[in-house]
Amino acid sequence: MRLRSRLHVLALALLLGLLTGGLLSGTSGCVRAAQTYTLVPQGAPSSTVGSLSVERIEGGQRLVVLQFDGLPPPERIAPGMREFVVWLEGPQGKKVKVGTLRYDRDHRSGNLLATTDLRAFTVRVTGERDARASEPSGVLLAERRVVTN
Fold first, then answer.
1. What is the structure's pLDDT at 32?
2. Does the pLDDT at position 14 exceed 50?
3. In this structure, are residues 7 and 75 in contact, taking their beta carbons and an 8 Å threshold?
4. What is the dihedral of CA 123, 128, 130, 132, to 10 degrees?
5. Domains along the chain?
6. What is the DSSP string of 45-74?
7. 124: which residues sit within 8 A by CB, 6+ positions away?
8. pTM score, two decimals?
9. Would you say 135 and 95 are in contact if contact means Cβ atoms under 8 Å apart?
């Protein structure tokens, strides 16, 4: 993982904490230890590596951070794909689009920072023709079930 990408994700997490008052509230323990998971990409070269970190933050929210390195452009995963979109599916099956990966073509990396109030969910990263997709396509890059404490 490139140092620059890690610093970018950490800076975004710090900014989110400042904006939500989590780091300025004066309470101890406002951010809990992160749970980290490996994301095994499907349909991508074996050199592609992914990780998912989930941290509890104030207000019952969870900070979700995805990072991929060695990630080819979406159009190389499947013809016509232009974006990598991240979805969370809750226990009742409701799918929510949380955003698109910020893709860096020069470094072949992608990341996303989002929040959710779900304790348990499945994260899916799909290739999409358009970032405005309302349902996940069948082009699955990665999937992981997460249960937080």
1. 55
2. no
3. no
4. -30
5. 3-147 (2.60.40)
6. -TT-EEEEEEEE-GGG-EEEEEEEESPPPH
7. 86, 87, 88, 89, 136, 140, 142, 143
8. 0.78
9. yes
